[in-house]
Amino acid sequence: MYTATELKHFCIYEYFLDGYFFKWEQMRECYLPMENEIREIMAKDGKTIRVKVERTEKVSESEYKILLVSL
């Protein structure tokens, strides 16, 4: 767990895969994936899924919604 001083600059990403909520993660570095970028993401069960970034939406100053489609 991060302390309050370590969380001064962080981003929260909410991932939606094929229209359904997939997972969220909190990152210390803010990196926004590019539209049409191909990525591999890990599911909770440890499986790796290949996806394409469809769109990124800013929800607030430090929160983003990442819309993905499976390949």
How are the SSEs ordered, and which strands pair?
Blueprint: E1 11-17, E2 20-27, E3 38-42, E4 48-60, E5 63-70
Parallel strand pairs: 1-5
Antiparallel strand pairs: 1-2, 3-4, 4-5
General description of the model:
This protein is an all-beta fold and 71 residues long. β1 and β2 form a beta hairpin. The model is unreliable at 1-5 (pLDDT under 50). It has a five-stranded mixed sheet with strand order 2-1-5-4-3, with no helix packed on it. The protein is globular, with a radius of gyration of 13 Å. The chain has strands at residues 11-17, 20-27, 38-42, 48-60, 63-70. It has one domain (11-70). It contains no helices and five strands.
Keywords:
71 residues; mainly beta; five-stranded mixed β-sheet; 5 strands; 0% helix; globular; disordered N terminus
The low-confidence parts are: 1-5
Distance between the termini: 33 Å
Helical content stands at under 10%
Can you tell me the number of structural domains?
Answer: 1
How is this structure best summarized?
With 71 residues, the protein is mainly β. The protein is built from no helices and 5 strands. The model is unreliable at 1-5 (pLDDT under 50).
